[in-house]
Structure formats: structure tokens, C-alpha cells
């Protein structure tokens, strides 16, 4: 293991078993119902939508383009950083905030950022179990602050050093592969959305709460083997949206409220929000309306934002995958990382 300094990092050389430190998707169903897997009722209807005939980018573009045909200017890098800034991601670091870089072999150095704090904690626990003398902790970072500077940035100023070594022994310019890891439930949900047919959905709706383990296993295996996207367990981050859903964002002093389109990391949170809203409707037709769920790769979404287009991304809001506490909500604040939960100080990732 080494630590990343300047960016700073320590590197853990713990062999090929390092992959076991990162929770990955299993190809077996962990529950006999979709409700059990995602906390979503009537899962068959939600997953078994119209067949996915288009690329996800084109599908989203067709549904969200402005009716007026207006073209909106590209978002600047600063605007994209701010759009992502309030999203917390979690990484294992030392007590000073230097990121932990894992070495599964002599030629590979990997650092993980997790959207799920539970998955990050599981990795921390496993690393501590291999060497309880290491002073490791979980640190939170702003996705906006690391998106361009770390995940998609220049690595020329990276310093790698062994645990306990000083900066004079650091390896400068070491190549590190950064992996952003989604919640495995949302990754599976994205794959199911892209593979389940209306016929599959009807079969699951008929089964309801009496769904057999065989039927659930069949759906999961199809998602794992046939999905055209989200084939990797990292760096393919699903973002979910419902084209019919809108929210009102209160305006500032003297400003009108703004209608926005919410986008979600969590499929369960999005569908639960939709179902709560629809259950309050008095019109029976509205109550029974099935949402038109779309899923899109976060990297492709950012790429779309970076170009002029017919989607008003300034009227879209990305919602965190987990509830954000008082301190974590400061992650994207102008005050910088020093006031944020888990951020290190000195020449480390915590300076971002």
C-alpha cells in the first residue's frame, strides 16, 4: 500500500486479493423479489418498459429536448464542477488525508472513490484487517472538486510513498488508476432497465409478492450478461431520471420559483419519490401512471453538458445517493475542503 501525496498517497501491496476489498455485483439474486432488492413495489412494471431501441444518450436527448427547439449554451467547467459539487464521495485515506492506493500487482496502482459510504466502510474494514497498525480512516470529498482534477486530470504531480516514509522517498509522477464505484444495487437496476422487455415486466407483475427465486435469478442473470451498458463495476455511474417528473425550486429574494428536472444516483429514492407523489393524486388515471424511467452514464451526461444542445441542464438538479449531513453539505461550498467532513490537510487530496 502507498499513500498519495501532493496529491499524496500511500500504496498497499496486498496482492491479487485486493479485488476482494471492493464489493462487486454477484451474478446470483440476493432476494426473491425486486422489492427486496430495490425497495420498490410493482417492480415488474417499472423495469419492463418499452424495448431499448436507441442509445441511452439519444433516448434522453429525445425526451428532454426543449419543445421550443431552443439551443442552450454549453456549461463551463466551473459550472459542471458546481453542478457536481454537493455530491459526496468516499475514499480510504490515512490520518492526514493522503489517499490509499492499492497495488494488486507490480504494474497496477488503483485508488477507489465510492458513492456508497457502506461500500467504502466495508473496504476500510478489510484493509484494517490486513494490517491493524495502519492509521486509516474514511474521508469524504466533493465529486465536483475531484471530477476534473483527479478522475479526469493530469497525474504529473502525484507523489506515491510507502507507509511511514517521508516525502523525500516519494515516487513522483506515479501512474494511478482512479475508480469511481457506484452502489451495486443501482448498477444492477441500470442493467435491468436496459435488458428487461415488456414481456418480462408482465411476468414479474403477475408474480407480484409470490415471485419465485428462479424468476428473480433469471432477471438478474439477464441483466448481468446482456446489458449493452454498465458492464463494468466502476467508472460507469448510472444516473436515473423520469421524464415526467418536475420539482419546484424556491427562488431567492425577489425571484420566482424555478421548475427543475431532478436526476438521481439512487433508483430506489427516485421511484419512492414518484410513488409518494402519485399516491397523493385524486385522479385515478394519474395514480396508475407508470413512470418513463431513463438511465444514463454520468460521464456521457457530463460530455453532453459540455456542448451546446437542446437540453437545459441549468434547470436540472443532481440529487445525492444518500442523505447529506450538515457538514457533508459543505463539500461543494466556496469555503473549500478544510471545513468538510473527513478532509485532510497539507499536501493531500484534502486540499482539493
Short overview:
The chain has 352 residues and is α+β, with helices and mostly antiparallel strands.
Describe the structure in your own words.
The protein has 352 residues and is α+β, with helices and mostly antiparallel strands. It is 32% helix and 20% strand. It is built from 12 helices and 14 strands. It has helices at 34-38, 43-47, 56-64, 77-84, 117-130, 143-151, 184-195, 198-207, 213-226, 267-279, 284-287, 298-305; strands at residues 2-5, 8-12, 88-94, 99-105, 108-114, 136-142, 159-161, 171-172, 177-181, 238-242, 247-249, 258-264, 293-297, 316-319. Strands 1, 2, 4, 5, 7, 8 and 9 form a 7-stranded mixed sheet that branches. Strand 11 (247-249) and strand 12 form a beta hairpin. Helix 4 (77-84) packs across helix 6. The longest helix has 14 residues, at 117-130. The protein is globular and about 70 Å long. Mean pLDDT is 75; it is low at 13-33, 41-45 and 324-352.
